[in-house]
Design goal:
The chain is α+β, with helices and mostly antiparallel strands. 30% of the residues lie in helices and 40% in strands. It contains 5 helices and 8 strands; from the N terminus they run ααββαββββββαα. It has helices at 4-15, 23-28, 52-60, 130-137, 143-153; strands at 30-38, 43-46, 65-74, 77-87, 92-94, 97-99, 105-117, 120-128. The strands form 2 sheets. The protein has a 6-stranded mixed beta sheet with strand order 2-1-8-7-4-3. A two-stranded antiparallel sheet has the order 5-6. Strand 3 (65-74) and strand 4 (77-87) form a beta hairpin. The termini are far apart. 24% of the residues are buried.
Amino acid sequence: MATDAEAVVRAAYHAAEGSVLDVQGFMDLFSEDGVFNNVVAAESYRGEHLGDLVVFMGTFAPDVHRELHRFHVMGNTVAVELTIGGTFTGPFETPAGVIQPTGAKLSIPTADFWYVEDGKIKEFNCYVGLSVMLAQLGVQPDFASAVTSSAAAN
């Protein structure tokens, strides 16, 4: 039997699926002061921006799907180990410019922690395997430039 916290979290995953992409429905699951933390990227979203990453993923990989491997409910806390999958068919905006779609298949390991109060999401902390995602996109770190920059700074 699903708990209220589990039902809310499962509804959030459903709303963010590429086949559904109900951005407003996703946002409506959060409390008025709710926050979505993209922990790896050090970004936080609140209010009208709670759905920004749902929109981004739906543009980046319109067939985005989350395979929920392990789902643990501990009272009002829900921890999920999952894989975000999809096909890179949309533009990927970066600080350096846009990476054009390649059709690459994505399988990104992720861990999510949800904190639910009074039937609403109070806090959602998402830990995406960014280095794996970038490698799947063919984006490799530029260590040579980093070494050159650090040498110049010293």
